[in-house]
Structure formats: structure tokens, C-alpha cells
Amino acid sequence: MTPDDNRPTPAELLARIHHDKSERSTGRLKLFLGFAAGVGKTYSMLSEANRRIEESRQDVVIGYVETHGRKNTDNQIGKLELIPRKKIEYRGTELEEMDTDAVIARHPKWVVVDELAHTNVPGSKHDKRYKDVLDILDAGINVLTTMNVQHLESLNDAVMQITGIKVRETVPDWILGRADEIVNVDITPRALINRLERGDVYQKDKVPQALTNFFREGNLAALREIAFREIASTVDRSVQNYRAEQGIQEPWQTSEHVMICISADRPSDRLLRRGWRISQRLKADVVAVYVAPDHIELHQRRILDANIALATQLNIPVEQIAGADVAKALAEYATSNQITEMVIGHSRQTGWQKFMRGSLVSNLIDMVPGTDVLVVADPAMKAEK
Q1: Closest CA to 380 of 353, 354, 348
Q2: Per residue in 37-46, pLDDT tens?
Q3: In what order do the strands lie in the sheet with 341-345?
Q4: Are 348 and 382 contacting, i.e. CB atoms less than 8 angstroms apart?
Q5: Whole-angstrom Cα distance, residue 206 to residue 204?
Q6: Cys bridge to 35: 98, 150, 223, 380, which one at CB 3.0-4.6 A?
Q7: What are φ and ψ of residue 205, in 5° steps?
Q8: What phi and psi, each to the nearest 5 degrees, are found at residue 286?
Q9: Are 374 and 343 contacting, i.e. CB atoms less than 8 angstroms apart?
Q10: Residue 1, pLDDT above cutoff 90
Q11: Residue 295 DSSP SS3
Q12: Nearest alpha-carbon partner for 32 in 176, 146, 149, 180
């Protein structure tokens, strides 16, 4: 390791984790996330609860669990202590909800709380179960919980478009950010359909309707992809937060991010096509970035519009940034967005400009030492000489 390498060592990471655990006053939230009913979220959560009891002798109880009569899941309850549910009368019917106050009074190390997106019976302390979970966490109790990705509020319209079904029970997206750990409980759509057809998910009489509605293979594949993306996004945010906390500037090669530097001064079609090809080869995210000039002439607007049109055609998002120093503005964007590959054209500065201010390309390379910079040749410059 070089002296200026800001990456933490494994020992430093472990020390930070222990420090965080000792300093925190709230409980930890571990979320078992799936893309549909029947993937095994509750089973996995109960399996972990049993492991914590058997292997670590931890104090684990069940605040609320819903097995839906699935035999294998029922068997996982085993010797786990169940906190009696709270009975609430609603419209002449006695219903049951988690007794949050009883859980807090019992104060175990971990509590199992199924179906995070559940809507509580009117008359409960909170309208949503996730709010009960927040109370438990605030009391310093760790929580194991489950949820399907379609219950995220921001995905409501997308799920409706994919499945034709309006999800009524939702949780705010920041809940994913609140989770200390997210477990992706995943099986293939075909395996889930096989479970459904065997009667392992719903009773046999409900299977035909489920297969023709929500549980179509295309629906499940799309929801599974959404789950993958949400988890990847959450992990990426965690890495970004850690880097910010530690003051780490250089990009980590956790994934590839390609940045194409376009401008209003000349066509950037070669840069865009080259950057797009690089992103496809690396299976990387790609973005086109330009520094907005203080004043833009008509011919510059036409060039910029053409550049943006080509980027749109190639499905490359375009970002406008500001800054009097072009190299500095591009470098700051690259650093804050963990750009690993930068594509830029040759500078058209005169020799005098380079002498007075330095080459734009050279300055940029100096400012992003951890980023690969590809300088794309411009045939027009050769023709002008």
C-alpha cells in the first residue's frame, strides 16, 4: 500500500464496524427482500432467527409472523418464543396485530417482524407496521423483517404497468436506506411458478387465477430485475456514503462508470460513439457531460443540440454542469460520481493558450489520477494543419 492510498485495511473496516455497533443507540434492521410471494423470505428470516439462537445463544423472539399455512415455514418457528398478539375489535370482528409495546417491554436482542408493508387495523397505535418497527428500533432492539420490492412507494406506477395490479400497501423508499443489511431472497421465475403449481405458495384452488394474473413468468422476470436494481442502488449509496465519511476521493473499481466529455464548441459524435462502445464492452453505466458556457452563440447551440440528439439516440443520459474552470468542473463531477473511464477529445487550444493556462486535457488528467482518460483523435485537426 502506498502512503497516500486512502483505502481502509480489513482491520480498519472491522474496527469501524465494531465502533458503529458500540456507539449506536438504535437497533439494527435486517431486511429480507424478495420480488414476489413464495420466494422464501419468511422461511429465510426464521432460519436466521433459529441460527442466532442455536449458534450464538442470542435472545430472539417473534413479534409477528405470517406463514400462510406453508408447512416448511411453519416448521421453522420451532422453539422460537412468540410474543402474544394484541387483539383489536374492528366493525364487530376481533382482529390481531403485533403488540409493539409488549415487544419493547420484553426487550429481546432480536425480534422477528414479518410483512413490513402491512397496514394495521384501524385503532392501532400506527397505521403502518413499518412505523411500529421504527419504534422497536428506537428502543434499541434489532429487527429481522421481510418485504417484496413492489411495496416500495416510488415503484407503484411501474408495478401497475407491468402487472396490471395496483399495490395498496406501500412503504416509503427511505426504508431501504434505513436498513443496515438487505438480503436478496431470490429464485428463478420458473422455479417460483413450479412452487405455485405444487401448492407450496397458495392453496390449490387459487393457483389457476394466480398464474393468469400476477404470477405470469414475464411479470416475475420484470419484478426480479427491479429487485436486483434496487439492491444494487442501495449498495452503491452505501459505498458512496462510506467514501464521503472517510474523505476518499479516488474511484474504487467496484463497477465501471464511463463519462463522455462533450462541448458546444465542436461536434462530439466521435466521442459519443467511442464512449458508447466502451460502455457496452465493459457493461458499464455511461453519461455525457458538458460544462455550460456563460454565454452561448447560435452556432454553439446548434452544435450542442446535435450532440445531445446523438446522445439521446444512443440512450446516453446528458448532464449539464457549471464552472468557470472547465477542467476543474469535469474533474469534480468525475470524482463525485466515481467515474472510472473518461472519454475526451483533443484540445484545440493554441500554443499560447496552453503556455498560459496549460492544456485542458493535461490539467484534467492531473486532477483525476485514479481515472483512465481516453483522448480521441480529431481528424479535422489534422486537416487544418
Answers
A1: 348
A2: 999 999 999 9
A3: 318-321, 285-291, 257-261, 341-345, 372-376
A4: no
A5: 5
A6: 223
A7: -70, -15
A8: -140, 145
A9: yes
A10: no
A11: coil
A12: 146
User: Parallel, antiparallel, or unpaired for β 285-291 and 372-376?
Assistant: unpaired
Any bridge partners for residue 29, and if so which?
143
Q: How far is CA 31 from the centre of its chain?
A: 13
Query: Amino acid identity of 235?
Result: V
Residue 322 has pLDDT above 80, yes or no: yes
pTM comes to: 0.61
Compute the mean pLDDT over every residue in the chain, rounded to the nearest whole number.
84
pLDDT tier, 272 (very low <50, low <70, confident <90, very high otherwise): very high
Q: Which residue has the cell 376481533?
A: 94
| Alpha helix segments (H runs only) across 148-268 | 156-163, 174-178, 189-198, 207-212, 217-246
Task: Name the pairing type of β-strands 285-291 and 318-321.
Answer: parallel
What is d(CA 206, CA 37) in angstroms, rounded to the nearest whole number?
Answer: 13
Type and span of the H or E element at 88: strand 86-90
Contact 227, 187 (CB under 8 A): no
Q: Hey, what's the cell of 74?
A: 411453519
For residue 32, the SS3 value is: strand
pLDDT of residue 103: 97
Return the sign of the alpha-carbon dihedral for residues 9, 10, 11, 15: positive
88 within 8 A of 97, measured Cβ to Cβ? yes
Least confident piece of the model among 119-123, 142-146, 366-370, 378-382: 378-382
Distance CA 210, CA 231 (A): 26
Q: Taking residues 274-300, what's their average pLDDT?
A: 89
CA distance 70 to 83: 21
pLDDT in tens, 160-181: 888 888 888 999 988 888 898 8
β-bridge partners, 290? 320
**98-121: pLDDT as tens digits:** 999 999 999 999 999 999 999 999
The number of angstroms, rounded, from the C-alpha of 64 to the middle of its chain's C-alpha atoms is 27
| C-beta atoms surrounding 226 within 10 Å | 18
Identify residue 101 by its one-letter amino acid code: D
